[in-house]
Amino acid sequence: MPKARCYDPKLECCTPVGGIQPKFPIKVAEWCPDRVKQKNFRPKANGCGPEGGPKVPDAPAGADFKHACDGHDICYATCRQDKGACDRVFHSQMRAECRLEFGIGPSRLRCYQAADIYYTAVSKAGADAYDKAQKQGCNRCCP
Questions:
Q1: Got the DSSP string for 62-126?
Q2: Positive or negative, the Cα torsion across 127, 136, 29, 70?
Q3: Rounded distance, CA 44 to CA 98, Å?
Q4: Which run of H or E residues covers position 22?
Q5: Higher-confidence residue: 5 or 24?
């Protein structure tokens, strides 16, 4: 059986998910469920697509998803926000935009398909972006 390891509560946290973690810097946001909000931090939005990455159209299929994309960016960077919840709200907002923009018919269906693609992209491949944003919005692993 491995030896128990003592930790220094001034420098480290004992977390239920990641075990002993340094208070700062946060290694993996999900390992620190009690992470602490960065004072005076204001999340930034950059429209659709990853920060500094390839630009993704804000208005695929004719509906403007920029508001939903900006909200998603802010949600990811808000300390202790749940990634899955951010992704689900994002999906819901895009589909609502499709309903507002298009009547029943093929245009709305194409818009829904675009919303589903954007949602799938963030839900399947957005973990790194979420983790990076949480590290910006939270300044340490625990109080």
A1: G---HHHHHHHHHHHHSTT--HHHHHHHHHHHHHHHHHHH--SSHHHHHHHHHHHHHHHHHHHH-
A2: negative
A3: 25
A4: strand 19-22
A5: 24
How far is CA 121 from each of CA 67, 87, 91, 103, rounded to the nearest angstrom?
Answer: 17, 10, 11, 26
17's tokens: 């998910």
* Among 39, 42, 7, 4, residue whose Cα is nearest residue 23: 7
Q: What share of the chain is helix, strand, coil (3-state, %, to 5)?
A: 50, 10, 45
Read off the pLDDT of each residue in 98-107 and give the average, rounded to a whole number.
Answer: 94
Q: What is the rounded distance in angstroms from the CA atom of residue 90 to the CA atom of residue 71?
A: 7
Greater model confidence, 1 or 84: 84
Length of the chain equals 143
- Residue 8 has which token pair? 């220094």
Measuring CA to CA, which residue among 95, 45, 100, 106 is closest to residue 70? 45
Q: Please determine, for residue 58, whether its predicted confidence score (pLDDT) is greater than 90.
A: yes
How large is the average pLDDT for residues 103-124? 96
Mean pLDDT of 29-51: 90
Q: Cβ–Cβ contacts within 10 Å for residue 138, how many?
A: 23
Chain mean pLDDT for the chain: 91
Say what the pTM is: 0.88
